[in-house]
Design brief:
By secondary structure, this protein is mainly β. It has one helix and 15 strands; from the N terminus they run αβββββββββββββββ.
Length: about 190
């Protein structure tokens, strides 16, 4: 099964996004142009569910090891996927004129997931906090000028967030726009 999964990840006919791969519990998950491929490692099965957007990253649900959140690459969409059943349980959008630009992190000991995003009005990077039970936006933290991308939990309960320093105002274009500040790593409490 391992050889099949690895070869499937590089097969251009499957239109997979190489940057959207996750290992969550017993599932290996790969994102495609409009699909998510879910491999059950123990059962040695590969199934497909449609999300209708190109995934960029996956966030494990903080309380349910069989669920993940698929985050769109340069768009407003999120899908909660039940990996055991290989189906989308909920689909929803971020705030108007906001695009997700990268990744996220679960706040330790809580029901919150924070996702890096950019305001298309101001070009500023934000962390958007969602309650995983209700899937409602409950926090909007303005973090930095420019887009936010990588977001990693640290052992002390903070998150390490990478800012590209590039304006998010031109994200729909091939070029991301002028650099607003030097690339920086920003440490923020979730």
């Amino acid at each position: 099964m391992s050889a099949f999964i690895v070869s499937a990840c590089v097969d251009p006919k499957l239109r997979l996004g190489a940057d959207s791969v996750s290992l969550s519990g017993r599932h290996f998950v790969v994102g495609g142009e409009k699909d998510v491929f879910v491999a059950d490692i123990a059962a040695q099965t590969l199934r497909i569910t449609q999300v209708n957007f190109k995934t960029h990253s996956f966030l494990p649900h903080p309380h349910d090891p069989d669920k993940i959140w698929a985050i769109e690459r340069w768009g407003p969409n999120i899908a909660e996927i039940d990996c055991r059943e290989c189906r989308v349980t909920h689909s929803f959008h971020g705030p108007e004129k906001t695009w997700f630009f990268g990744h996220g992190v679960a706040a330790p000991g809580s029901d919150l997931i924070f996702i890096s995003s950019v305001s298309l009005d101001t070009g500023r990077g934000h962390l958007l906090g969602y309650d995983v039970r209700t899937r409602k936006l409950v926090a909007d933290v303005d973090v930095a000028s420019g887009t936010l991308h990588e977001c990693h939990a640290l052992p002390d309960g903070t998150a390490l967030i990478a800012s590209s320093g590039a304006s998010g105002l031109n994200m729909a274009l091939p070029e991301l726009g002028a650099r607003l500040e030097p690339t920086a790593l920003i440490r923020s409490i979730c």
